[in-house]
Specification:
heterodimer; A: alpha+beta; B: alpha/beta; six-stranded mixed beta sheet; five-stranded mixed beta sheet; 8 helices; 11 strands; 32% strand; elongated
Chain lengths: 359, 205
């Protein structure tokens, strides 16, 4: 079945609802202070702002997760499972001007456990498969990366630089920063779990994070997701916010990741919430290039009438054409009307004369 | 088939020689013609020449699976790509240059450059307030005519600077050509990209 961007939001809503997630809607804007406090969490620190009637500085939301955390009450028992389809406002890739970008995603907040993490990863994979079976979900673990950085004795600026080198698989610059065989291996290690996990086991024989990762991978493989899982430590998110599993989804034919997510207990803590959390977002606007060529549109009719044609005659001609054409566009014949892609008619007296295509 | 963006000019020709020695030749690439893309189906590669500063854009946006770009371009535009190898060619350095006796230590520094992001980042780490003057070429003339206090630019031999009485005042970072890859291509053409990277690294060692 071909991918259809028009029906994607509906298909994903159905998928998330079926798995117990509730739809969540929110306002288009928030107080700017929310984003200022957490600007490192945002993709860009440039935010569209305006002053509200009471003088408060507001912002068109550049991110959904922050709003959800701010606007939901702490969960008292059950894990809160929400999904959303919202527009966010961010600078475009070229940095020239803001863009309205659709984001579809889900969030789990509460006593997030191994099953919950598995469920979110599985839903991420199913979301990617809704788009195409030629997809990959890269999974990484910030806890393992953090452990390796600690072992290498890296902190502060050096730690950030090492993470940046790992995220771009830049082994040559990582080697200039430190001499950690573990980090060097992690920078280049990627592929199917069956190849990667034994190497990780040798690097981290007793790490609880690795044990967690192995259990998750095994569960995903049992759930029929083996073909599209990779372990890849180049998926790196800010350690202030993200702590455990992080992931990014790719679809063949789209030049960048279309889905990203992870565990963000750090963000919850910064926002004075005691719960754990995990979620992901998918960006449908990146998928436009996957759209099949649109079906040739049925020709439209262009009805030209002279400026002194009686209104009634024009109205009757439009009505008559509307019965036989898909769409009718009536325009005064100024000699300057584009007829591209149209079947062209002219109203002469009370008669409608066909002039031809693009005449 | 791997799409490979190479930078036009002397650096691109040197880099192509490395690819050819590694088993990914395409002799038509060096012939004079009006063709824009050059294929070697046996080696599974399609090359094309682009402006050096555009290579990263072609790779980031997926028009090329891999490409070769200077570290200066990668630092300036910070494209979201993998940087898989330092090819150890096109070596030079990004530096601050000017008249040593006219390097103000306290007041706002006027910096002429083609690389505003690199200059801004460098001086931000020093906590220094600067006024960026964005130029597109002939940067060395800016301090001579009093347009700027210093320049931030690529220095190869330093000969042009010396002939105009300018000196390298601070070195920002070494620069060389890097092999970069599109992140999504790396997921779906993993084997082909890893093979080419490995072959090139073996030839480069």
């Amino acid at each position: 079945m071909g991918f259809d961007i028009q029906t994607l939001p509906r298909q994903l809503s159905k998928l998330y609802s079926k798995n117990g997630y509730e739809p969540y809607t929110m306002s288009k804007f928030e107080e700017y202070a929310l984003y200022l406090r957490n600007k490192d969490f945002l993709v860009s620190d440039r935010v569209l702002t305006f002053t509200d009637t009471d003088g408060k500085l507001m912002a068109l939301k550049p991110d959904v997760t922050l709003s959800i955390i701010k606007n939901t009450r702490p969960s008292t028992g059950a894990i809160r499972k929400l999904f959303y389809q919202e527009n966010v406002y961010r600078p475009g890739k070229s940095g020239q001007g803001f863009r309205e970008i659709m984001q579809i995603g889900l969030e789990c907040m509460g006593q997030v456990d191994a099953y919950c993490i598995f469920e979110v990863l599985r839903l991420a994979i199913l979301s990617l498969r809704t788009i195409s079976n030629a997809c990959v979900l890269d999974i990484s673990h910030m806890g393992l990366l953090s452990r390796a950085l600690d072992e290498a004795g890296l902190s502060g600026k050096l730690r950030k630089m090492a993470l940046a080198a790992i995220s771009s698989k830049n082994l040559h610059e990582l080697r200039e920063l430190c001499s950690s065989k573990t980090l060097e291996t992690m920078a280049v290690l990627c592929g199917k779990p069956a190849q990667v996990l034994p190497q990780l086991q040798a690097l981290f024989p007793d790490a609880p994070e690795l044990a967690e990762l192995k259990i998750l991978i095994a569960a995903l493989e049992s759930a029929g997701c083996a073909d599209c899982i990779n372990i890849d430590f180049s998926v790196v998110n800010d350690m202030q916010y993200y702590n455990g599993i992080v992931f990014r989804g790719f679809v063949e034919g789209v030049p960048e990741g279309v889905l990203s997510g992870g565990e963000y207990d750090g963000l919850m803590e910064r926002m004075n919430r005691k719960e754990k959390a995990i979620g992901f977002a998918l960006y449908p606007d990146l998928l436009e290039r996957l759209m099949p060529p649109s079906k040739e549109e049925a020709p439209k009719a262009l009805l030209l009438y002279s400026t002194d044609s009686p209104l009634e005659a024009v109205a009757q001609a439009v009505q008559k054409l509307a019965q036989q054409e898909i769409a009718v566009n009536a325009q005064p014949d100024t000699g300057n009307v584009s007829a591209a892609g149209c079947r062209v008619y002219r109203l002469e007296g009370k008669e409608v004369r066909y002039l031809g295509n693009d005449a | 088939m791997l799409n490979i963006a190479l930078p036009k000019g002397r650096l691109g020709e040197t880099v192509y020689e490395t690819f050819a020695k590694a088993g990914f030749s395409c002799p038509a690439l060096l012939e004079k013609s009006r063709k824009l893309t050059f294929e070697n189906p046996q080696a599974g590669v399609r090359y094309f020449w682009v402006k050096p500063s555009d290579v990263a854009v072609y790779v980031e946006r997926g028009a090329a699976d891999i490409g070769v770009a200077g570290k200066d371009i990668l630092l300036e535009y910070t494209p979201d790509v993998y940087e898989l190898a330092d090819l150890q060619v096109g070596k030079c350095r990004m530096a601050v240059a000017g008249f040593p006796q006219k390097y103000p230590s306290a007041q706002m520094l006027r910096v002429a450059t083609k690389f505003p992001n690199i200059a801004r980042t460098y001086y931000a780490t020093q906590g220094r307030d600067i006024d960026i003057i964005h130029l597109n070429g002939s940067i060395e003339i800016a301090p001579i005519l009093g347009l700027s206090d210093v320049i931030v630019d690529i220095v190869e031999t330093g000969k042009t600077l010396k002939e105009n009485g300018l000196e390298v005042l601070e070195e920002i970072t070494p620069i060389s050509a890097r092999l970069i890859a599109n992140k999504s291509s790396y997921k779906f053409k993993t084997q082909a990209i890893q093979t080419i990277v490995q072959a090139i690294q073996e030839k480069n060692l």
